[in-house]
Amino acid sequence: MSFNYEEYIRKGTLPHIWCAGCGHGILMKSIIRAIAKLGIDKNKISVVSGIGCVSRMTGYLDFNTLHTTHGRAITFATGLKMVRPDMTVILVCGDGDAVAIGGNHFIHACRRNIDLTMIVANNYIYGMTGGQVAPTTPLNDISTTTPYGNIDRDFDICRLAEGAGATFVARTTSFHTEQMDQLIIQAIKHKGFSVVDVIDSCWTVYGRRNKFKDHVAMLEWQRDIALPLKAAERMKPEDVKGKILTGIFCSKEAPEYVEEYRKLQERVRGVTPGQPQYEQPSDHL
Amino acid sequence: MSTSEHVRLLQGNEACAEGALYAGCRFFAGYPITPATEIAEYLALHLPRRGGVCLQMEDEIASIGAIIGASLGGSKSLTATSGPGFSLKQEGIGYACITEVPCVIVDVMRGGPSTGFPTGTSQSDIMQARWGTHGDHPVICLTPSSVQEVFYETIRAFNLSEKFRIPVIVAFDEIIGHTREKVVIPAPGKVEVIDRLLPTVPPDKYKPYDAAGSPIPDVPPIAPFGTGYRFHVTGLNHRKDGFPTNDGRLIQEEEERLLRKISKHSAEIIKYEEYKLDDAEVAVVSYGATARSARRAVKMAREDGIKAGDFRIITMWPFPEERIFKIARSVSGIVVPEMNLGQVVYEVERSSKGKTEVIGIGKVDAEPIVPGLIFDFIKKALNKKAIGRKGC
């Protein structure tokens, strides 16, 4: 029997806004499958997004969903997670949202190692506004704001996350759906800030301007260019060049922020002489 | 915990933090900025001891995002800042307006624009508090005048925020923020503390933006995330169930409800203090630290036989326009001193509808407006009246 997605999608919210051939739907279904596999109570899941095409996913999903402002999803998620540590908080952001306008929050969430799962739908472009250059757009590619070719070097989101201190970092593509499911499951299970960089496809405003015949050609390109990290380790550097490395970049244990804050609270709890103290509201965690 | 009333010597910023704790605030996120930093420092010391959370975020924008997120989790939340940070938070404030998430933003006003005069006092963010974020939106802004009043108005800010599901701004000048005064901290339970309206319907019937049947007209109940009421929150115009909409009629309806939510309840939100206005020929309308000079100036005028009175604004937004119109009809001049180059004076003019002469005193030299200067303007206002009569 096929998987029942309807249980996780809000009634009356479809059809979605995404173009035909967009990879966001593949990602949404993968997130649903991962959550189902983990068996987490829907009431205890919050999916938080910023602004952009993929951010509209939160509207369709039947969880506690929060569609925030551009680039700021992590900040809202941080506040929520600190007061509701019992909740699983998952972020779904586009590449521009995550590492351009939201870049500062991104590196600091990595540094804090707060228990959030961040999934970046990395389609190399600003899709919703019609195809402007992103910090992930490859060199020389065409966008509406780089009509003569992009001269800005692109970010490697995984290396950025790892360098900033994230404790679980992985990459997959929208072609590799089984790997996507597995990585999202591991990222959610990981205690600490986890990042999954999903190489996504936007044919409408990126692929079509950059020599991809159609949507299928983009998926085929993802299939061909993806190279598992483990395989790359055994290869000569010149053979790895131009490939997109996939798999787990890092997975390590480190003090987690919510947990550390709870320890701090316990350490300092109590009355200071001469200082007033007030009752905590009963509904507060 | 302290169960009885007690007296403290506190600066305005500390009294603000104490007021927040009294009101049940258990989440603070901020970023260092003069002259508001003491609020973060005080809460960093006291919140974790009481099971709360105090975070220094990576920037001002992160701070407003974090308090909105925490509030959605069910925690009363606060951030504090000053001019440049207040500018950066404006998008987030608009988000809290349209998503109707309760939170409190403190703005300890310093000189501007831009970096301006970080340690200099000012009252120049009054219009930013009203119109800082884009689009039509409701606003509540409170402007206390003393350290004790900062304590009470911070509690009231939380109460109004929770009751009406709206971000509330508490704006006070650097003088109030850094002045140390006696503060009486009442016993817990002595001052009313209001918590947000929770839904009474089962989760499958809950619509986060449906105010029908709510005990507070136009204010829908709000469920904390994680409690079984799964819903969608978005800064896009949305339907009553929270899902985005492009339906113009619905957008108009919801926007009007947002504004009505405050305008309809303005009588209970608006707060002011009047002094010797009954027989006054000249009124001084002021707020914050300047109101204390105004009171002294009115006393000086009375000692000189001049019938002066003062109107002290405590709720700045919504503006007490009806009361000011009545005063305008009974006096021959209104003096509006403020530590900016003209903001509230235009609101007073608008409210007066031409019934009286309105004279502003604007100062941005980072010094308080002294009583003597206001007294001089009270006399000027009287002279204008005399000139006016000659003309009749």
Quick recap:
The complex is a heterodimer of chains A (285) and B (392). With 285 residues, chain A is an alpha/beta fold.
Give an account of the 3D structure.
The complex is a heterodimer of chains A (285) and B (392). In chain A, 34% of the residues lie in helices and 17% in strands. With 285 residues, chain A is α/β, with parallel strands linked by helices. Chain A has one domain: Thiamin diphosphate (ThDP)-binding fold, Pyr/PP domains (Rossmann fold, 3-Layer(aba) Sandwich). In chain A, the strands form two sheets. An eight-stranded mixed β-sheet of chain A has the order 2-1-3-4-8-7-10-9, sandwiched between helices. Chain A is globular, with a radius of gyration of 20 Å. The relative contact order of chain A is 0.13. The mean pLDDT of chain A is 94. With 392 residues, chain B is of the alpha/beta class. Chain B folds into two domains: 6-185, Rossmann fold (3-Layer(aba) Sandwich), CATH 3.40.50; 272-391, 3-Layer(aba) Sandwich (Rossmann fold), CATH 3.40.50.920. Chain B has 14 helices and 16 strands. Chain B has helices spanning 12-23, 37-46, 60-72, 83-88, 90-99, 126-131, 147-164, 174-178, 248-263, 266-269, 288-303, 321-330, 344-352, 371-391, and strands spanning 6-11, 27-30, 53-56, 77-81, 103-111, 117-121, 140-142, 167-173, 180-185, 232-234, 272-275, 282-286, 308-313, 315-317, 333-338, 357-362. In chain B, strands 2, 3, 4, 5, 6, 7, 8 and 14 form an eight-stranded mixed β-sheet that branches. Chain B has a five-stranded mixed β-sheet with strand order 11-13-12-15-16, with helices on both faces. A two-stranded antiparallel sheet of chain B has the order 1-9. In chain B, helix 11 links the parallel strand 12 (282-286) and strand 13 (308-313). In chain B, helix 12 (321-330) packs across helix 13 (344-352). The longest helix of chain B is centred in the C-terminal third of the chain and has 21 residues, at 371-391. The radius of gyration of chain B is 22 Å and the shape is globular. Chain B starts with 5 loop residues before the first strand and ends with a helix. The interface between A and B is large, with 54 and 58 residues.
